[in-house]
Design brief:
single chain; 3 helices; 40% strand; elongated
Length: 237
Amino acid sequence: MSCRYPFPWPQSGETVVSDQFVGSVEFLQFPSSRRMKCHPQRCRGSRRGCSPTPSGPACPPRATALPHGIVMYSDSRIRAMEDRLAILELEGLYARFFDDHDGAAWAALFTPDGVYRSRERRSDLSTGTSVRGRESLHAFCNDAPYTGIHLMHLPQISIDGDRARSRVHMEWFGSFDTPGSSSKRLVGYYDVEYMRVGSTPVWQISDRVTTTFMAESRIVHGYVSGNGLDAADTRRM
């Protein structure tokens, strides 16, 4: 009998991800609607399709194409995906905790000696902000004299073992509560270094540098009620 087998049979212990199964398997039973091509003794089924038997030999190595919806991942590839997802979550928490003025939670995203820095000009860190250590980071976030919101773009991430780096483009809008103070819009990017640390390893920020591409300010005086024509100092004589 003839049937179609479109990709290599997974080896024992391999992790398989499909639209019907995820896990480390001894064998995988394919749906009958998937046609396969292998020798009669290697598969069983009907004319519409067949499934390889777990005890039978592997199908020919020439069949290597993966069908839609089924991918086989090694442990290292799964670990790499988990690392990237963890860093994405870390960046989301970074923005949220700072916007909430939650200094304790924001500082905990850094390593104990982590540092936040900023530079106003492309290559100069000497005139910008520099905050090192969780205690100082905690105060920096809690004492910020403005309210604001971060709009974070997707980071470009590179991972090397227990270290990683990213470039994150961002926008920030902030305002000060005092009438007559300026509101501010900043466009720029972060360069971030991460470390995987702890007995239960987690990714944390070890160094973070903000580079400003563009900043603009506006003065907001606030709405004044009443009719300006009725004010004593504007009445014409």
